[in-house]
Structure formats: structure tokens, C-alpha cells
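Subject: design request, 276 residues
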């Protein structure tokens, strides 16, 4: 009986692995002292370089310590099926590359600049590029829109890294003493923390957070929204009762994905899902 159970478990895992979305292609975007970094692209069906489609770049979570671009493969595959070019970015982490959180922000900015610089080759509208991410990846997405420091010294900063929209899943907003990761970034937290670098004109933002998140307090997200609204900018905050950190890829995957879809419809980046 135990052998049968083990066999069924193996077959189930294999099936799930086969069902996992796969990127259309993987391309290098940056050479670092720790190795080459890549972007995992999901293209819509019959996509071509003349398409001028909206795009989104996703950054995985993992506390700037670890993680993999495949975390956002499901969301990327869905948005590609809806007409966006969806991209999952690699970036340097402490565990794999021995780097600190500043390198993560540098890589996120480099990824956004590379996509915008190569938009014509990728079939992307350079004026409709969003950034998204979860947890520390949400921090990176927000940082590309708010943080002015931590650029690669040899990079052409005349190409903007700022996205035109943000989709943030239990994101790290606050790196102050009362926020997340302060002990690791305390020497430069004021330049590193998205909440403390918000300015008028921030891109329209959608935020997902569970009320039982033990890393990101609800009050932090509410304060972020308050600042954005005071600046006259859009911030849609969706709170999910009794959900913990990382809920968006678990119990509430469909709900958060549907709201993300509707957000891009509201920006007129996508057609309504039920449109004939």
C-alpha cells in the first residue's frame, strides 16, 4: 500500500510539473560580477515585434535572500493569454550571489530599463510597462517607481526605469525601524524605502494584502495608500480577511489574479475579459 501511495504521489507531482506554465523564451539582460541575469518572457499568441502591446515585469519574493522567477509564472501566463507581454525577472540574491539588498534594486532598475530600451524588438509599447512583485519583489517593483538611488554606475539612466503601473502582492513598503528588513538596510534605509520616497505622480497602483500578514501590517499599506491619495495618485488596496503572507499564490490566487486583470482593464491596457 505504501508503494502505491508513493507511486501516486510521484505521478501527481510529475503532472503538476508538466502543467506548470513555461516561458516563450529566456533572454539575457545584464552581466554582473556574479553572473549573467535573464528575463523569462511570456508572449501572447501570434505576437510580433510590431504589436506594441502593454507589458509587465514581475519580481519574485524571498526577502532579498532567495527565490525564483517561476513564482510569477502563473500570473505571467494568464496576462500573456489576455494580450500583455509578461516577463519574470531574475535578480541577484544573498543566497545565490552573496549580494546585499542594494544589488536587488539595481537589477530591478536594469531590468526595467532593458525592457524599455528593447521595446521595439519585443513588440512592447514603451509607454505601457508595468512592474509587479510579491513581498521583497513587491518592494523592488515599488522601488523602480519611487527610489532614485541604487543605479548601476555604468548604466544609461536617461532610459527611465519607472513603470507606468504597479501590481503589488503583500509588498514591502516600509524599511524604517518599524518596517521590514531595517536591520539589513539601516545604513541606507531612507533612500531604499518606497514609502519614504513617494512623490506626486507615482504610477497607478493595486495592492493585495492579507489581514493576518505577520510581516506587512495592514496599517502600513493603509498609510501608503493615504500618502498616494494625498498626492492625487491612484492606489487600490484590496485586503483579504484572515490571510497570511504569501496568500496570493495559495488560497486567493484566482481572486487576486482577477482583480489584477480588472485593474489593467481599467487602465485600458486590456479589453474586458467578457468582451466578444
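Subject: RE: design request

Done. Sequence follows.
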Amino acid at each position: 500500500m505504501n508503494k502505491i501511495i508513493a507511486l501516486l504521489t510521484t505521478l501527481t507531482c510529475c503532472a503538476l510539473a508538466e502543467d506548470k506554465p513555461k516561458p516563450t523564451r529566456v533572454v539575457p539582460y545584464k552581466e554582473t560580477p556574479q553572473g549573467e541575469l535573464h528575463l523569462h518572457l511570456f508572449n501572447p499568441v501570434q505576437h510580433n515585434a510590431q504589436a506594441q502591446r502593454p507589458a509587465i515585469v514581475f519580481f519574485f519574493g524571498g526577502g532579498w535572500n532567495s527565490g525564483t522567477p517561476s513564482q510569477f509564472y502563473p500570473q505571467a501566463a494568464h496576462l500573456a493569454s489576455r494580450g500583455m507581454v509578461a516577463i519574470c525577472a531574475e535578480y541577484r540574491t544573498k543566497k545565490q550571489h552573496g549580494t546585499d539588498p542594494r544589488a536587488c534594486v539595481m537589477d530591478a532598475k536594469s531590468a526595467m530599463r532593458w525592457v524599455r530600451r528593447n521595446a521595439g524588438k519585443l513588440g512592447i509599447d514603451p509607454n505601457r510597462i508595468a512592474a509587479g512583485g510579491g513581498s521583497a519583489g513587491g518592494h523592488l517593483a515599488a522601488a523602480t517607481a519611487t527610489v532614485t538611488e541604487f543605479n548601476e554606475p555604468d548604466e544609461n539612466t536617461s532610459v527611465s526605469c519607472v513603470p507606468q503601473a504597479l501590481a503589488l502582492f503583500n509588498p514591502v513598503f516600509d524599511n524604517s525601524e518599524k518596517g521590514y528588513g531595517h536591520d539589513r538596510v539601516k545604513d541606507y534605509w531612507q533612500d531604499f524605502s518606497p514609502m519614504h520616497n513617494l512623490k506626486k505622480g507615482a504610477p497607478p497602483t493595486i495592492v493585495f494584502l492579507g489581514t493576518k500578514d505577520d510581516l506587512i501590517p495592514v496599517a502600513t499599506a493603509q498609510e501608503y495608500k493615504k500618502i498616494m491619495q494625498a498626492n492625487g495618485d491612484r492606489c487600490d488596496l484590496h485586503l483579504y480577511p484572515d490571510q497570511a503572507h504569501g496568500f496570493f499564490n495559495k488560497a486567493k490566487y484566482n481572486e487576486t489574479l482577477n482583480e489584477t486583470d480588472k485593474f489593467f482593464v481599467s487602465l485600458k491596457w486590456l479589453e474586458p475579459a467578457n468582451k466578444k
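Residues 2-19 form the longest helix (18 residues).
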